[in-house]
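question for whoever is on the cluster today: can someone run the full assembly for these? four chains, 1503 residues total. i dont have access anymore since they changed the login thing
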Amino acid sequence: MYKISLDNINSLFAAIAESKELFLPVKKAGQANYANWTEDCEVALDSLKTVKSPKDAFFPQFETLYKVNRKIIPTDASEEEGSETLVETKLRTKLEITPTELKDKDFVVFGMKSCDVKGIEALDKVFLTDPVDNFYKARREHGIIVALACHEPEESCFCTVFGVDPADPSKAKADVATWIVDGELYWKAISEKGEELTKSVASLLSDAADDAADAEISNITNIMTKLPNTKLSLEGWGEGKTDEKFNSEVWNELYKPCLGCGTCTFVCPTCQCYDIKDYSTKDGIQRYRCWDSCMYSDFTLMAGGQNRTSQVQRFRQRFMHKLVYFPDRYGMYSCVGCGRCVDKCPQSLNVVKVIKAFENEKKEAGANV
Amino acid sequence: MQGLIDRLSALLSDGTVARVLGWKKGDMPYNPEPHMFETAESLKDFVYDGFCGANLSKMMIEASKLEGKTAVCLKPCDSYSFNQLIREHRVDRENAYIIGVGCRGKLDIDKARANGIKGIEEVSGTELDGPDSVSFKTIYGDKEMSYSDLLLGRCHVCKGKEHMIYDELWGESKDTADSERFDEVKALEAMSPAERFEFFKKELSKCIRCNACRNVCPACSCRKCAFDNNNFDSQQKANVDSFEEKMFHIIRAFHVAGRCTDCGECSRVCPEGIPLHLFNRKFIKDIDELYGEFQAGKDPEAQSPLTDYTFEDCEPGIVAERSNG
Amino acid sequence: MPMTENGEFRPLIVAFCCNWCSYAGADLAGSSRLSYPADVKIIRVPCSGRVNPMFILRAFERGADGVIICGCHPGDCHYTSGNYFARRRMTLLFSMLDYIGVENGRTRVEWVSAAEGAKFSATMNEFVEKIKSLGENVRLGDLRCKD
Amino acid sequence: MQRIGVFVCHCGTNIAATVDVKKVVELVRFEPGVVHAEDYPYMCSEVGQQKIAEAIKEKQLTGVVVCSCSPRMHEATFRNCAEKAGLNPYMVEVANIREHCSWIHKDMEEATKKAVILARAAIAKVNLNTPLQAGESPVVKRALVIGGGIAGIQTAIDIAEAGYKVDIVEKTPSIGGRMSQLDKTFPTLDCSSCILTPKMVEVSTHPNITIHTYSEVDKVSGFVGNFTVDIKKKARSVDLDKCTGCGVCQQKCPMKKVPNEFNRELNTRSAIYTPFAQAVPNVPVIDREHCLMFKTGKCGVCSKVCQAGAVDYEQQDEIITEKYGAIVVATGFDIIKLDKYDEYAYSQSPDVITSLELERIMNAAGPTNGHLERMSDHKPPKNMVFIQCVGSRCADHRGKSYCSKICCMYTAKHAMLIRDKYPDVNVTVFYIDVRTPGKNFDEFYRRAVEQYHVNYIKGQVGKVAPQPDGSLLVQGVDLIDNKQIVMNADMVVLAAAIEPNPDIRKIATMLTASIDTNNFLTEAHAKLRPVESPTAGIFLSGVTQGPKDIPETVSQAGAAAVKVIGLLAKDKLKTNPCTAKCDVMMCNGCSTCANVCPYGAITYEDQEVRGPGVREVRRVAQVNVALCQGCGACTGACPSGAMDLQGFSNRQLISEVDAICR
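^ ran it for u. tokens below:
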């Protein structure tokens, strides 16, 4: 275990940024989001939850996949086509395809909370199983995660429901675990990549005992038990529950306030749906992918229409996917209990309300028997 | 509140209305959700307090199509939106029974959070006839804030306590305006173009294109938004380049210009806290100054300034004249 | 930045001209040989009221340095009232662009009748000069379009 | 994907001298959709059109772009050509590389580059064009002529003679117009009313012509072939049918101090009056502004003396609504106000008069019964000075930039008539140039100089100063002898510029006819369509289009009539298929578009809408294509883009923007 004073933390950031891109919570116009560190940025390590999760670091909201450009180039006489036209041309067109290069440099994501690290695990299931997404894979290989314990969790947090330990990031699949206690950042490498990173900044770190972090761990663990949503039961969800849940009447009531916006999707650390589009530029196109939301009315729009035509279907899809289909396919929930949707839904709908609504249904059904 | 619940119950029971559109208790003390109550019994979960900020008028577009009347609880500012929707033939006045509910300003939980209040377990003092301060019981200790410090930004420029349309009224309203409606816009206008550009760039670069502002907006009631259909080749989903956010928000504000009632829902719901009302309010200010004062939703018969004209209207060159002094 | 060989900035200017007055005015400028820079490219629309704000932002997105809308004089609209609506729409749109910090000289509306070839040419010369003095449009515009 | 052919015209050297046509052809071949590109010296020629037709057939073209002159010139030509070759005419677009490119740029490289960009925009548009079918609309076989002067009279007679109904709307109590005020006409010196009166009689008795005098056009709606016009018939206070035209009422009217407009206010008339003896209809009107009955309620003399019982004080203004297939504007002219030219002392001395006032003075029915005399002391003048170009050919903002065209000739006429009748009067004319292009015109002018010894001085008058003895001191320059001239005159006559009737603005706005900076109506084409407005169904007759003398006016009036007859002879017109169209799947039913439609072409109705996941009855917009004129105001009002304009769709215009900004 090492430590560094928060007074000195900027030198740590500078040291990391010297050789690697550094991605960390930065406050801009009043809101904390992950962004590249710059000397004059306002680092917000004290923000419990950034608005968007840090999944952008591995799966950015927007990325160009490749560019296609149409070039007019000279041609030699033997290749000449279209000689039936009145004009003799000595030109022809050629398509030039330039794929975007995969990430080939290490980068550090600093200050990720355990829930968000767990979120990356869910993304891994999707993007690293066949067919592997090369863009994502390259970023995962080069990304170094420095996880940070959640100093004062809030009432919207319920990560423990999904087996996340917000107190002890060393249990997360990160590279370095850190705690902030009394103006000091405690640092513990937990993977090979983490060890290497530690080495590269060793001169800035000093040795520390485990007790400060241990105290923080028990403190946070204790707070978690007091938070209302951590008592949520997942009984009735998970693998094999499709029939039971899909046809429930509860959805028809629950979805009604839903605006069909993408807020929950875009702040969520596990949502992984994307769309691929073309953007026409000067003499070609850029093919890019961007996050999509299953809540949008044009999600998976095809020539023949959509497979989900109503908001209730779209609403059900999002939660069924997180709580039933994903466990069915990958053996884990696609919710990590970060509580961002709890904080951000304009209509105060969220995954907790969904789970509770089904609990109530069960209770009511039980009472009727 | 019990009085309101009793009245709504009676309306449901005597068949005046088939359902009630109101707010349902949330799982947190501060997050009630809009809800359609179909039975008198279900009204046990009805809530109306300082956190019921959501403007329910847009939900009446769908509710209008249902069999029977819908009782809808509208705050004074929501009633403007409802009127505007009548003007645009989007809601059916005959299918609505409007309970004009009193309002003493609506609360913004983020104001509490910004004040360091977290781990909230209970909140008290938010009811319509409650005290001037709100108490928070949190796992990190008890906190208190004054009601007015917790108000949503829009309530500081409240349009007044009068309902523009209603069938019956419930509860006392309070005009919570304590600053000038156009002060924020004026402050921006006073900046240099470069400063304004930096301001909007900073704010808009946060936009994640979640469309919450659009989807909550009672004026943005298009079946298929110009940004979701292909007619302008503008189908976009991501924050791809900073231009797209500008384009989206300018056009969105333009499309609702002359129709926007300044209900402030866009700013309330923005997950990134972008002060989107600054776009709409700029248009309102310009319209007031250039074409005469106009408040959308005040009168459902009034012609919108953008579908109207006079021979003597100012020329577009006035923009440069005003801006360059 | 679009430059000629001698390093002079050549702006890209899109002009929307109504078919009845301004497009004809531009034709008259042409037949009278009243020149204006080739930087101006004209798009024919039936009426200034046809110009959607989307078109203007689109032009800026794609790298236009200035956009000008020309229509019949107030009172002379071939369709009675199209230019009146255009006038209000453009006033508000331009004001908004100014508000977000885009130089207000980049947008302009001018009423040019079919008989005003000289005015058309003079307006375009003046507008091109204005845009040249403002330089390249960097505050609007999508970077991808530079590729 | 379209199969587009691009045809680049040299227009002789008009285009080819500044645009490298071959290079344009070479480069457009690589634009998306282009399968054929060629150039030809004259695309609009028969051979050129043949090339387009052949390519359409041989290459199975689905779209055509012609890079040539303005589409306002030859779009119709190329569309017809395409249609004959089996291609929908609306699959043709024109890139204007002449007026908008070759004619205004000098640098070949620059012009070529621009031509390619303009071609690219047109190609991008055609890629999104869809075949459109023109609809049909019926033609109302009746014409309206606004203005009852010689232009309106001639047009009406010619149309009526072809067998169509014509209505004339005249603002004043009688038809006849400016010509009825004239004494003699150049160059033949025949009496104006002698040649006009038979025409007036003819028009008033023609079975196909209805005259609405003392009436104004109040409202116009509709479009070519089908205009609906509200005509306001002002209360005449005299029953047209009962009145016998005996004139007793005018003699007995106690109010005789009303300025006489017909005599340019040089004398007065009664409150109940006919403007002049030959008035048609010969029925007086009561000028309610001056009539004692209307002012004080006490009089009623005219009613008492009228044996026919025609006087009706209770008569009200009446609006009649009529449908027309065509409208002719013949609103004529007036002379400018002279308040900006006070150096000529027009406002200071009654002996400084305008030429039109001189016409009335010279006329036997005028204020002086035809005797030439000074208006101040009624003495015959000895020295007269005529000043030309007062307000015409004026460089500054006081007057008009144009030549009023008729002044040189009528001044020669006046000078000659005066010298003929009063040989002892000295006549001096100050002129800038004497312009006499017209049959027998120069001969006429030379007679004035040579035979009648009128003193012509090339030069301008700087000042006319009234002297205490009642004479006028005229200070001018003689540019030929290069000397200052100071002379005394008893009368000074100003050749004031003519300008379109001030009512024309209001009328043009109602008709949506375009107007130039001088308030003359614009022609559809200055040379080839001089009697048509760019607004279909509106025709121009007389000085409303530009300064003219009587023979020119009459010729143009006839030409306008021919155009009207050509239109009315058709049973149906092809309508512009570039109309608005509503995508009901997206329509919100908000009515915003209907609020901006100037034609009332958009209505809303409940309609069943079906689509993926949708099947419901909704309130949606419907466009009546017979009424829609394709302005597109609705498309700018529609937030979602449900309302679009065919032929100028959102996607098409955006693709043009993109092509230009590439």
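summary bc i know u wont read the tokens: Residues 2-63+102-229 of chain A form one domain. The radius of gyration of chain A is 25 Å.
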